[in-house]
Design brief:
Length: about 210
């Protein structure tokens, strides 16, 4: 799937041709909407749908990898809830959600490696917020609002789904994401520094909730 035709591989499906209620100007922030737009205009169906991105490297049998988790509606690498992880960075955008959605706010990190059953993805698409929030927050909120059963991958299975830089060759079988050149990670570090004001706003919001109204 691509959200613009430029540079697409042969046979790619360009979801940009479908109408969208979401702000997709920033492709990184809106990458989750590619899933919803494709599913709503799909030309094939399956029992399960797995999100793989261009920077994933998989050296295991995916059927074996996910089989222990198939009792869940959705399988994620990491689940961010307001109860277990109230300080997650992107909860600073909760106020952009509709008032009735804010209690359901949750996050999925990363979106790559997420597995949906067919029924689950159908329900997710029916509950996706229209607000301009980060993709990981929008998807998590839709899953929570739909009342789906979520399971996280175990520590061994999600061990390589993170931004920690590997300084040795990929030798251990697993699911790796993101696989990028080192200079890309440096750009991410610069981006993180630019986000400091946003993180301070998040801290202020959290402190305000802790103190409560006077």
């Amino acid at each position: 799937l691509v959200d613009e035709p430029e540079g697409a591989l042969p046979g790619a499906i360009d979801v940009a041709r479908h109408p969208t209620p979401w702000n997709t100007a920033d492709k990184w922030r809106s990458c989750d909407t590619m899933i919803y737009r494709w599913f709503q205009h799909r030309t094939c169906e399956a029992a399960y749908y797995l999100v793989l991105e261009y920077d994933c490297r998989v050296t295991v049998d995916l059927l074996d990898f996910y089989r222990p988790y198939l009792d869940a509606d959705v399988v994620v690498a990491r689940w961010r809830s307001q109860t277990s992880e109230p300080h997650w960075d992107w909860f600073c955008e909760i106020d952009r959600l509709e008032p009735d959605e804010r209690a359901h706010a949750a996050g999925v990190t990363p979106i790559a490696s997420t597995l949906f059953s067919h029924d689950a993805l159908e329900r997710v698409c029916a509950h996706v917020p229209s607000a301009d929030v980060l993709s990981e927050l929008r998807l998590g909120t839709a899953i929570q609002k739909a009342g789906l059963r979520v399971r996280e991958l175990g520590p061994r299975d999600n061990a390589h789904l993170h931004w920690i830089e590997l300084r040795s060759p990929i030798l251990v079988p697993g699911f790796y994401h993101p696989v990028k050149a080192v200079h890309h990670n440096r750009r991410q570090a610069v981006h993180a520094l630019k986000q400091i004001p946003r993180r301070l706003r998040s801290l202020v919001r959290i402190l305000g909730q802790a103190i409560g109204p006077r």
